[in-house]
Design a protein that fits this description.
The chain is α+β, with helices and mostly antiparallel strands. The protein is 42% helix and 24% strand. Strands 4-3-2-1-5-6 form a six-stranded antiparallel sheet. It is globular, with a radius of gyration of 21 Å.
Length: 143
Amino acid sequence: MSVSSRVWHRAPVAAAMAAAALATVACGTPSPDLFVVERYGTVPGARLRLLVSDQTARCNDGPVKNLTSAQIIEARDIRRDLLLLQTDDEPIPKAPPAQFFRFAVQTEEGTLRYPDTQQRPVVLPRLSRFVRRVAIDTCGLRR
């Protein structure tokens, strides 16, 4: 057997070993946290602490739940928009007092508080809808 054919036969084995090593390393690495949302309000079930990581969510310190692909994409987009909002010099417009819920969202840029009546910038009502859907659909909560 020539040297080139020996290298050819070893290449798939080396590639498989490298892939297995990477998979082992990746399995033990938790997903990075994207943001944490605390929701408060006057209605039953309003209180919520939602930790959103890159692929999972945790409601009220309960078990970690996997997010769907669509939820992961939405969470990443929301995080990007929140970071842009938090680093922008433009003030957030005033909103009427909360009807049912108040929110506090925390990212690496800090904490942003807003009422459920906040309509601008659009990322805030979008985040409110995301929180509600994850709480109900993923975590199995009433609200």
